[in-house]
Amino acid sequence: MKFNILVSALFFSAMLWAQEQNPPNSYSFSLEEAIAFGLKNNYSSQISEKEVDKAYKQKWEIIAQGLPQISGMVDYQNLLKQPVTLLPAEITGGEPGTFIPVRFGTQQNLGGTATWDQLIFDGSYIVGVQSAKTLLQISKNAKTKTNQEVKAAIINAYGNVLLAAESVQILQKNIEVLDKNFRDTQKIFENGLAEEEDVEQLQITLLGLKNNLNRSTRLCEISVEMLNLTLGLPVQTQTTLTQNLDDLALQYFDLALLVKEIPVEDNIDYRISENRAEAARIYVRLEKSKALPSLTGFVNYGFQGYSESFTFFSKDQEYFTQSILGISLNIPIFSSGMRGAKTQQKKIEYDQALLQLKETENMVRLQINSAKNDYGYSLENYQTQKQNLQLAERIENKNQIKFFEGLASSFELSEAQRQLYAAQQDFLQAMLDVITTKVALENLLDTSKYNYKNP
């Protein structure tokens, strides 16, 4: 008994140790790892993948309509009260003008039928089979577009977490430095060597920084939750990022991207618009095909058994069989212009789709040029804000020395500090802009196609 208790205690301790080494619901990601994880687990990504699965099933559904269809039916009847038929009594020698009740058939009947239906020709079916390929391509392109949007969302969310985290670190450092300045100035004031206004001015700045720190701390928590949601994780998941904003900005610094060119036809938005135009063209052909005749054939085989009692599984039960071979030709003759009106509607929709395709072509060109401009500006702004930060740090440091030497006022120091704090945030935002504008441009220049493995 004691041995069992000891083994159980050791096993339980081992489990606790393992959980401490690998705590549940915790993840660690570089940006590339986050993108790979999110493309697989993001909710929108999973939904769009299921749309592709559904499109494959719809494709087979359309094809199967022209393949043999076999159906069967078994019918059992027990006439608890058999119907009565009245016959003229004369046929049995009775009085003319009178009738005698008779019952026909047996009380119980069992029958079965099997039917083979085969579509021989139908214009709508031919067009439908052709449309299945377009339907599948539409879902694949939609998946590609979703993947691009998910990738951009993950990168933006990842960058926002880094921005919030580094903002917290910078604010904490600024508060630490300013708090020391405040305490030193307060001592100088107590010794009568500084104005009370100098102390109050530093206190105002310090209170503002602490307020910003509280806000940034809460924002950091929300940013992590947003990233978890984008990755397809529960929002309360403990997520650790292994990259910092500065390294990531340098990684996304790519001047070659500004001169990259692609055929507009390879852009995903153009491909989606092209799919819409192709679908509209198929709908025109579908309406036209409805004016064509359709030809179907069938083979029917059945049996029927009759008995006064339930003897249908007896080897002596007699069954009567029948079989039918048939062909049905349906010829549309006159629809009072209804089919023509529907066809014209679809032609108008096709013309609209072609106009939208042309608009999309020009819109894509504009978006690429605009995205290149934004990305180029973000690269230049990154360099500018980096220099501004270095200048602001030097100015703030000089003013801090001058202030304690009595050569600068508290207002001049506060102004230099505010300038430094603004430069810090501007530099962080400039790094994030490099990342977000690059992914926007990359998505527009992306020519990849979704590779789907048919299950």
Structure characterization notes:
- The chain is built from nine helices and eight strands.
- The strands form three sheets. The protein has a four-stranded antiparallel beta sheet. A two-stranded parallel ribbon has the order 1-6. Strands 3-4 form a two-stranded antiparallel ribbon.
- It folds into two domains: 321 residues, Outer membrane efflux proteins (OEP), CATH 1.20.1600; 87 residues.
- The longest helix is centred in the middle third of the chain and has 68 residues.
- The N terminus is likely disordered.
- It is of the alpha+beta class.
- 64% of the residues lie in helices and 15% in strands.
Helicity level, as a percent range?
55-70%
**CATH level-two architecture of the largest domain:** Up-down Bundle
**Element-by-element helix/strand order:** HEHHEEEEHHEHHEEHH
The first-level CATH class of the largest domain is given as: Mainly Alpha
Neighbour order of strands in the largest sheet: 2-5-7-8
Low-confidence stretches: 1-23
Q: Calculate Rg over CA atoms.
A: 40 Å
CATH topology of the largest domain: Outer membrane efflux proteins (OEP)
Tally of individual domains: 2
Number of contiguous helices: 9
User: What is the mean pLDDT?
Assistant: 88
Question: What's the SSE blueprint?
Answer:
Elements: H1 2-21, E1 26-29, H2 31-41, H3 43-64, E2 69-78, E3 85-88, E4 99-102, E5 108-121, H4 123-190, H5 196-231, E6 238-241, H6 245-251, H7 268-289, E7 294-307, E8 319-330, H8 338-404, H9 410-445
Parallel strand pairs: 1-6
Antiparallel strand pairs: 2-5, 3-4, 5-7, 7-8
Helix pairs in contact: 2-4, 3-4, 4-5, 4-7, 4-9, 5-9, 6-9, 7-8, 8-9
